[in-house]
Records
---
Amino acid sequence: MKAWQFKVLRRLADGEFHSGEALARALGMSRASIWLAVRELGAAGLEVYKVRGRGYRLAQPLSLLDREAVLRQLGDDAAHFSIEVLDSANSTNTHAMQRAQQDVPGALVIAAEWQEAGRGRMGRTWHAGIGGALTFSLVWRFTQGMGFLSGLSLAVGVALMRVLRALGIAEAGLKWPNDVVWRGGKLAGILIEMQGDMLGPSTAVIGIGVNVRLSDTVRGRIDQAAADLETACNQPLDRNQLLALLLRELRQVLEVFAREGLAPFRDEWQRYHAHQDKIVTLILPDARQERGWARGVAEDGALLIETETGIRRYHSGEISLRPITPVMRNG
Ligand code: ATP
């Protein structure tokens, strides 16, 4: 998505009809460029209606990510963050990893309306549609070394869950090590990357992708069950407000984590654990599978699995957990 395509999106965001001719005139573009931009918006997950004689219209009005709106929502807490909202980024984590080298006042937040190449763990892809997702990265500095951060993605999961509970989403849960699920579908993902020294200090780039409203186009690209917030809480959500809520909660959790690690969050994580005391399959790096009872997490974030030979600890690395009971699809 290019800057000129975003200009068209901003005009269409009100959900009203705009003729191709009026858009072309207002933006100083050709009608063919407007048509191309609309086609790209469709490919990016937006539903755009075209009606002969009236022009183009979004299926529903769209409130775009807006730095000022996030700052307003944060109120006094805004002073703790340095927020940048981009139309488009390669991936907010990649961008934030580069920016993390620079000194900025407060914790740096990079949010993007569109990611060219959103990422999951182990080179996997994170899909997000324009206007229907919240994708951002938060850069957080720790005096400790990278080893101290092993349970960080679990603490971040707790922060996400607190916000979802506050929104009234009772059925959301956590899947080790980095997902938030709702009725068996993935609602949000966490991707943490680190810079620094084993002995400290270190920097974590905490990437978060939340499905706010999944369009059919985006849903069709995801090769596993997915869920979205608006379905889960049965109401439209303002993404700027959501970002502010998440940042406020993340700050509280990260400040405690920086002092005490995962320990203060461990019980809470287990209460949210979608597979606690259920039988699961683990896919190991060499593709072997192991089965056992999920017994929660250790204080360093390791997953505890009870097998016939006793409790085993698994560190996040390249291990994937899969439920073996049938999951309920959302909808
Ligand atoms: P693991 O259990 O190992 O974390 P995972 O499949 O959850 O496995 P992640 O790296 O956490 O892998 O997330 C990337 C995966 O999530 C993609 O391969 C895809 O299957 C799925 N995915 C991508 N985009 C979305 C989305 N917007 N909503 C839900 N799921 C998505």
Note: Residues 239-260 form the longest helix (22 residues).
---
Amino acid sequence: MTERIIPIADARYHAAVPPVPDAPAAPVGHLEDARGRRLHDLRISVTDRCNFRCTYCMPKAVFDKDYRFLPQSSLLSFEEITRLVRIFIDHGVEKIRLTGGEPLLRKDLHRLIAMLSPLRTARGAPLDLTLTTNGSLLTRKAQALRDAGLQRVTVSLDALDDRAFRAMNDVDFPVSDVLAGIEAADRAGLAPLKINMVVKRGVNDHEIVPMVRHFRGTGHIVRFIEFMDVGASNGWRLDDVVPSADVIERIRAVFPLDPIDPNYPGEVAERWRLRDGSAEIGVISSVTQPFCGSCTRARLSTEGRLYTCLFATGGHDLRALLRGGCDDAAISGALAALWQSRSDRYSEIRASNTTDLRRIEMSYIGG
Ligand code: SAM
Ligand code: SF4
Ligand code: SF4
């Protein structure tokens, strides 16, 4: 019998149109799921395309010239995104992160920032609006993003060593351009930046200490992220993960460290400070210390599908409601019902799940 291969691109098609309740209750600025977790953060993927082919995220063997990215007509427009964001805010969302793919590839992204930045949370505070980027286009775009109202930016940077960096992005992109982008973002007032490094054993773990050394004294916060088994194409093995506890030990051997309190309860990154006060660093231990118990994040895919977990196998087609003529009250009611029935906790039960082929890709849903 021949084995049937499920093309990875098909994963995106598993989405159901969420039912709209008959008489949706008005939102009250606070929504809890079946495990008592608030809806607080929304990550929005604005494109599924990327100019990098990071080996752990969009390996070339899968994301090649034949890979079918979403057509323009499938993408949520900026107006549709803004409409949904307002509805999410009514349910208590206070933090929005734009991501992708590479979000700066989305044409005129500053226009979306300008539409989102004036919005206020249900409590009347400014929205916490940020963006995660590979930094390749920041030199050109940082100022326009800032002028449109962006407050902060997170840049992914997996190595300082040019050879290691080029090998990880797999498109021969030089690290100097990303470092220049980081400086441009700093100058534009998007500081302090967060610099995210995904650590993969034997590939870039020799860069942990140099990364701390390089960004000491700049005010930027380097965060080391455990390599995750997200998606179905990155060939993840537990052996490739460098546990955050090891990352901390390696840094502590060179720079004495003290733990610092979280900024808020349930913060994903564990924070540390160099004893000489020259830097804060963070570790994100998605694999060795799952944080599902305090996971308050929803994710919106490029074509408007809501995912209640990074490891979800299916989404909920909000675009169908938007384009099907539903009014805001109906969409709001459907969203409330979806979140209230959420019980995801993939990372806590990962061990029994790693063979599932239908997980969505990180580049599609955003990190
Ligand atoms: N292209 C942008 C970037 O690289 O910053 C935004 C999208 S990217 C999918 C968001 C984040 O996910 C990046 O920081 C990236 O390093 C991280 N990421 C991607 N695949 C990952 C994996 N398998 N494990 C851990 N983090 C991953
Ligand atoms: Fe692109 Fe970001 Fe994925 Fe790298 S991590 S391939 S930059 S989407
Ligand atoms: Fe949240 Fe799912 Fe990650 Fe757990 S596995 S922290 S529920 S996104």
Note: The CA atoms of residues 228 and 322 lie 33 Å apart.
